[in-house]
Amino acid sequence: MSSNVKRLNEYWTDIYFHMHYPHKEKISHQVIRILQLVEKKEEVGVNEVATYLQISHNTASEHVKRMVEKNLLFKERDLLDERRVLLHLTQPGKEVLHRNTSLDEEKLEQVMNQLADKERAVVEQAFKLLSEQAKTCL
């Protein structure tokens, strides 16, 4: 791994460490990964969860069942294939996901306001470019 990649990873972990929201709820890493999958991909069902997490269908089904009971997800029959059940985030699920994966917007705004206009534009462009390229890797 190149030293540039290591530095970039260190920068990212520094940013997240200093600027994430305080964690309010006890929630497992796997639950967060499932919420992210449902948010970022279209038409996610239990099979996609199992494949994504590399776990058995039964284990994925149990995770999803608990998340539905906790009102983080809801299920809906696919309109095109009624045999298929799709997963969606509830509003509380969206809020939990945001608090556990996003940067605190107030902290971020404070930091961005300390930058010059050109620096803010560079930061935004760099994050946009990384985001676009990351989406092509999956």
UniProtKB/TrEMBL annotation:
CDD domains: HTH_ARSR (cd00090). GO terms for cellular component: cytoplasm. GO terms for molecular function: DNA binding; DNA-binding transcription factor activity. Its main location: cytoplasm. PROSITE patterns: HTH_MARR_2. The keyword Transport does not apply. InterPro entries: ArsR-like_HTH, HTH_MarR-typ, Transc_reg_Sar_Rot_HTH, WH-like_DNA-bd_sf, WH_DNA-bd_sf. The keyword Transferase does not apply. It is found in: Cytoplasm. Coiled coil: none annotated. Keywords: DNA-binding, Transcription, Transcription regulation. Residues 1-132 form the HTH marR-type domain. Belongs to the SarZ family. This is HTH-type transcriptional regulator SarZ. It comes from Planococcus halotolerans.
